[in-house]
Design goal:
There is one protein chain. This protein has a domain of 60 residues. The protein is 60% helix and 0% strand. The mean pLDDT is 94.
Length: 335
């Protein structure tokens, strides 16, 4: 028996009745021979981990634009924290940890430079709107591998698409990632905001801290434990009412004190000008796009959509470099 088949048998014997087994995957858009070592979801995880879009996450903003310090989150460290939270949930609930990890690692591949400020800028510019969860799916279905995509399974793509709070993934593994994403960004953004001096732990309302805890570690511990306890033997991933209400209250506190804070957001007004400048330039000068993007336009794909693809894939520093190259005059030099 192959190693993959042994792993598939282990899943049958051990995982919850609510888990998505590898052998029950709905498959890929393009059929492929099975790997002798890895299940379909393990292969998806590895493909995401090794793709270029994943590597670029290390140079994309999470919340703070160009922070002075080495310990602020980036989009990559956020992704790893989501993965860890989601895997802890999946393991405790006997769900498919490989599927969970693949979704978690891929959920933000389509995020723009400059975090949600960049996303809002592209959403305002593109006639059909821009949403990073949909862009993440576009990355794995089309943009990676020079138009061939990663050919991921249906379940992984579904989890990536539906990781936002307002959407519902088809698998419990996807739902683990959806709630793990919220746990990660709420607690990390509190931690980074304390580090930046925007708030202190004492600013968090007592009615929230009394439920969730008085530190970064305590809050994550409370949320994870609460979900595991309340989701045991259920076909859903849920929090208790008390912890859910406190979590949403903490998120509201973040919006009021951090996300809308003029100190933290002082540079964001410039993001719209930068993204808009790039978009308008490439709209007129499509020949300045890399060949793989101009080819998609030649094949009949929407011109504005392709410009969004290119800009969304940029890191913060590369977007700044492109803007400077286009709009900032260079000093003359002797030849």
């Amino acid at each position: 028996m192959m190693i993959r088949e042994l792993q598939e048998q282990w899943e049958r014997d051990y995982l919850s009745e609510y888990a998505r087994l590898s052998v029950d995957s709905k498959g890929r858009d393009r059929e492929e021979p099975q790997c002798d070592l890895r299940t379909v979801f393990q292969r998806d995880r590895d493909r995401i981990l090794h793709c270029k879009a994943f590597r670029r996450l290390k140079h994309k903003t999470q919340v703070f634009l160009e922070p002075e310090g080495d310990h602020y989150r980036t989009r990559l460290t956020h992704t790893l924290e989501v993965s860890q939270n989601a895997r802890t949930l999946a393991r405790a609930l006997r769900l498919n940890e490989d599927l969970t990890e693949a979704i978690a690692l891929g959920h933000d591949l389509g995020h723009t430079p400059f975090g949600h400020a960049g996303e809002r800028a592209l959403n305002d510019l593109y006639k059909d709107g821009f949403r990073h969860n949909e862009q993440s799916v576009r990355v794995v279905e089309l943009l990676e591998n020079k138009g061939r995509g990663l050919n991921l399974t249906v379940e992984v793509r579904d989890g990536i698409l539906n990781h936002q709070t307002s959407l519902t993934p088809a698998t419990l593994e996807g739902r683990c990632v959806r709630v793990a994403d919220k746990i990660a960004y709420i607690n990390a953004d509190i931690d980074d905001s304390v580090r930046a001096g925007l708030i202190s732990e004492n600013d968090i309302p007592k009615e929230i801290s009394s439920v969730l805890g008085h530190s970064y570690r305590a809050r994550i511990n409370t949320m994870i434990h609460d979900i595991i306890i309340n989701s045991q033997n259920k076909n859903d991933i849920v929090m208790s009412d008390e912890v859910k209400e406190a979590t949403f209250a903490l998120r509201k506190f973040l919006f009021e004190r951090v996300y809308k804070n003029p100190v933290a957001k002082a540079e964001e007004a410039k993001v719209g000008d930068l993204i808009g400048g790039l978009f308008n330039y490439y709209y007129v000068n499509m020949d300045r796009l890399p060949e793989e993007y101009t080819k998609m336009v030649a094949d009949g794909q929407d011109k504005e959509r392709i410009i969004c693809d290119y800009i969304a894939g940029m890191t913060d520093q590369y977007a700044i470099h492109c803007f400077e190259d286009i709009y900032i005059p260079r000093a003359w030099s002797d030849i």
